[in-house]
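Our preliminary data section would be incomplete without showing what the modeling component actually yields. Below, a chain of 335 amino acids is followed by its predicted structure, encoded as tokens that our downstream tools consume directly.
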Amino acid sequence: MAFSYDNLKLDKGMYQEAGSTFTQVLERLDPSEQYKGTSLEGLDAFQRQLKRFDIKVKGAGSDVVEKFFRTADSAVLFPEYIARAVRQGMEEDILPHITAAVTKFEGMDYRSITAENGEAHELRHVEEGTAIPATTIQVQSNLVKLRKRGRMLVASYEAVRYQKLDLFSVTLRQIGAHIARANLEDAVDVLMNGDGNNNAAAVDQVASKGTLTYDDLVDFWAKFDPYQMNALLVSGDVMVKMLKLSEFQNPMTGLNFQGTGKLTTPLGATLLRTSVLPAGTAIGLDKRFALEMVQGSDVMVEYDKLIDRQLERAAITTVSGFAKVFQDASRVLEV
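Predicted structure:
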């Protein structure tokens, strides 16, 4: 059976189609649906192009960077490879674990929405002929602040041509992690101080400043009704205080931590440590309703420099911002 992916003509203009990513352009020319029931099922259009040019990007048998530049067509794939590796590094951060929704937006001015639940959050019994409680959805007054974050990739082709792609991907994932950390700083700022629409988080303090007890955590947890505190962002020092509490020394909690590296609190919230938070600070949130991430652009790579000049200097950037969806879905605890 002849496959169309073997005959595609690739050129850098495929990165320039408005409203479409490089992979989306490839998928339009070489739809994945036609490969159902074949050995290529499960691969997207970009992965099929890697197979076409026999480029292995991971594993012990990964190829060297030079493999991308054997032909003019295969060189076109290099910027997308970089973008995917950077994106993978971003997705390994904790940001996806606290984001309720991701909105992709093309433009400069974006306003999020908010909802007011009238007299009560709960759905009460409605008598015949009486008004039904209303939830009013409104556009926020102020725009979401979109910030451009990125890193400059500086390397000559000669310096990396014989480097294994598996190792090169590690460097790219680190760049993604740096960008994700910068985005997390923006997200934390919005959770704590609001997005400019008078929706800063409520601040609670422990009973005795400088100490943290299980009672403090229970009181903090109880204030989330009708929301659920299912995620808890903490600074390093707060993490240490929590781990020293006797309630956190439950054998099953320790077993889960030792086996998976993920620590769930006795209150049912996923515990996430980050150095982005100020010392003595914790943010509890209902990750289903607290935060919206707005992406003005996905990971962008300067494809001209990567294809024509074989690296040198290339900017890897992303544009994003954050909005608070429901103000009461997050609270701050100061220790």
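The radius of gyration is 24 Å. The mean pLDDT is 87. Preliminary results of this kind motivate Aim 1 of the renewal.
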